[in-house]
């Protein structure tokens, strides 16, 4: 009976915890670090001459949003980790058959702008 009571108490705490809503306006530290601020997008977009670095298509500033080191791998939202990519190339970079080649190209591209480029600085 005692174990059953403890189980019910734990179950109640779990249910109560799952009902809690996140505080509006508050972001997790990792989310804040990996998001790309407008100022960073401006720097990247200008560095990349307002074009997708892969196909050369002119794109708006909103497309300066492709992480070299992915957000899921804790890639930071810093200029050294961001490039401008049109939606098609961005998708290809993330999910396509040529993503390894594109990643190597991106690394070379970023190295050409940042002397001493190091992937660890992007995390």
What are the SSEs and their pairings?
Blueprint: H1 2-19, H2 29-34, H3 38-47, E1 66-67, E2 82-83, H4 87-95, H5 99-113
Antiparallel strand pairs: 1-2
Helix pairs in contact: 4-5
Question: Could you explain how this protein is built, in words?
Answer:
There is one protein chain. With 123 residues, the chain is mainly α. 47% of the residues lie in helices and 3% in strands. The chain contains five helices and two strands; from the N terminus they run H-H-H-E-E-H-H. The chain has helices at residues 2-19, 29-34, 38-47, 87-95, 99-113; strands spanning 66-67, 82-83. The chain has a two-stranded antiparallel sheet with strand order 1-2. Helix 4 packs across helix 5. The chain is globular. The protein starts with a helix and ends in a 10-residue tail after the last helix. The mean pLDDT is 83.
User: What radius of gyration results from the CA coordinates?
Assistant: 21 Å
- Shape designation: globular
Describe the sheet with the most strands: 2 strands, antiparallel
Q: From the helix content, strand content and strand pairing, which structural class follows?
A: mainly alpha
Number of strands: 2
Order of SSEs: HHHEEHH
- Cα(first) to Cα(last) distance is 50 Å
Which blocks of ≥5 consecutive residues have pLDDT under 50? none
Task: Assess the beta-strand content as a share of residues.
Answer: under 5%
Number of helices: 5
- Biggest sheet: strand arrangement: 1-2
State the share of residues found in helices, binned by percent: 40-55%
Overall mean pLDDT stands at: 83
Regarding quaternary structure, what we see is: single chain
